[in-house]
Amino acid sequence: MASQTNFANPYRSREEIETLLGSILKWALILLFAIVTIFPFYWMVNISLRTEQDVLTNPTRLFPRPEDIQTSLHPVWCWLRYGTDDLEVNPDLPEDCVNVFNQSAFTIVLVEQGFPPFIGNSLLVSLVTVSLTLLLTIPGAYAITRLRFPGRNVFSWAILAIYMFPAIVLAIPLFAFFTKTGLRGTLHGLIIVYLSQTIPVALYMLRSYFLTLPPDLEEAALIDGCTHLSAIWRVTIPLSLPAIASVALYTFMIAWNEFLYAFLFLVVNPESWTLPLGLERLNDQEVPVTALMAGSLIVSVPIIVLFFFFERFLTRGLTAGAVKG
């Protein structure tokens, strides 16, 4: 009996070709986007881990040498271990930690340029701004979405309209006001300015999320004897953790990275400088470019860590109010 051989169709259908090309194009765009976004950060890390001489002689080197990494990180370990701010020979230091501080971009930033106070000021301003923003906007957004009062809709849209004013437009009147009141040059004055920037958008984000929550749960809590504040604490906040995390991260990023208002209000008092102002001081011809990259890395890493930690909350929080409300 003669056997019949089945030959596979050597030609692909048009649908298969379009699907294949679409898949190739999709992954090519993802790869391109990843390179465009990740490479600048990697280049910043690469420059900060190399010595200034190596950067000047080999500016296109893609990977730091092991000896360069050792030269950059070992002084940081000495500084953290012995806590010295003396760049000269210190008899209390071990031999391998003597005269090495000015060889590392990180110790130039942390020791010579005095970045630890800037880090502390930025951390204080950011945490206080986040705390006050959440403390004011959670009950405010609840009131807009759940309570009935005249002008509620107008008020909710007016909040967002406030944020539409560019920061530079508000800078001059705020500068004049804070100069007359004596708040210029203080961290608590800067926090008040940041609250004026973060509260409107935070209210709008939480309002959009609260509209997606069924009011029956809160009404049941009120029937059971809860007050509005206890209903917020027991029902609304647990259900709104994605939106609250998104607002917290958004607020922290503004307070951590903002430069314009920090420059206007704190430039007269270097003791109150935040990280953006300290980073601007590194943009000088007398400061090595490796130190500028190290300072930029110090500013960027906390935001990146927080973003990846809150990423799942951030995605849910930003898209939850996109359909309703």
Q: Keywords for this structure?
A:
15 helices, MetI-like fold, 2 domains, 325 residues
Could you explain the architecture of this structure?
This protein is mainly alpha-helical and 325 residues long. The protein is built from 15 helices and no strands. The termini are far apart.
Written as H for each helix and E for each strand, in order along the chain, the element string is HHHHHHHHHHHHHHH
- Characterize the largest beta sheet: strand count, sense, and whether it forms a barrel: none
> Are there runs of 5+ residues with pLDDT below 50, and where?
1-5, 319-325
| Corresponding CATH superfamily of the largest domain | MetI-like
Residue-averaged pLDDT: 82
Task: Look up the CATH topology of the largest domain.
Answer: MetI-like fold
Distance between the ends: 73 Å
Radius of gyration of CA atoms, rounded to a whole number: 27 Å
Q: Structural class of the helix and strand makeup?
A: mainly alpha
CATH architecture of the largest domain: Orthogonal Bundle
CATH class wording of the largest domain = Mainly Alpha
Cα shape? globular
| Helical content (DSSP H or I, runs of 4+) | over 70%
Number of domains: 2
Number of strands: 0
Tally of separate helices: 15
Strand content: under 5%
